[in-house]
Design a protein that fits this description.
CATH superfamily: Winged helix-like DNA-binding domain superfamily/Winged helix DNA-binding domain
Helix content: 40-55%
CATH topology: Arc Repressor Mutant, subunit A
Number of domains: 1
Strand order of the largest sheet: 1-2
Order of helices and strands: HHHEEHHH
CATH architecture: Orthogonal Bundle
Distance between the termini: 29 Å
Number of helices: 6
Largest sheet: 2 strands, antiparallel
Shape: elongated
Radius of gyration: 18 Å
CATH class: Mainly Alpha
């Protein structure tokens, strides 16, 4: 199981790079060169971040991407949900179909507690805290 996918990792790295360059707009080519993220993959990620209003896109000469004001409080959990969907660890590990013992399963209860803890910790990691 991979907790953070490559898309989420690249998105976080790109957002941090843009945030460190405060009031400037950053071009895709600059992010690509600095972070070594493949251009087509990066463009897709930046478009998603723009659509979710985490980044602001400006076209033309002097264009590029900048961080939206709302992104300063973005948490790692929120970013993961953008690229990975809802965070769930507590699906049955043993069967592909829904388990009939779901309400009585002792393993499920343990995993649900771990999931709550992980999500709480991921929500405590903000973009601002990563930039310090």
């Amino acid at each position: 199981m991979k907790l953070v996918t490559r898309e989420t990792d690249y998105a976080l790295r790109a957002i941090c790079f843009i945030a460190k360059n405060k009031c400037k707009r950053i071009r895709t080519l600059q992010i690509e060169k600095e972070l070594g993220i493949p251009r087509s993959f990066l463009r897709k990620i930046l478009q998603i971040l723009n659509k979710k209003k985490i980044l602001i896109s400006c076209k033309g000469i002097g264009g590029g991407f900048s961080l939206s004001d709302s992104a300063k409080n973005l948490t790692l959990a929120e970013l993961m949900e953008v690229f990975q969907g809802p965070l769930h660890l507590n699906e049955c590990l043993f069967k592909k179909t829904k388990c009939p013992d779901i309400s009585k399963c002792p393993l499920r209860k343990k995993i649900a507690n771990i999931e709550k803890y992980i999500i709480k910790e991921l929500n405590s990691i903000t973009l601002s805290s990563l930039l310090k």
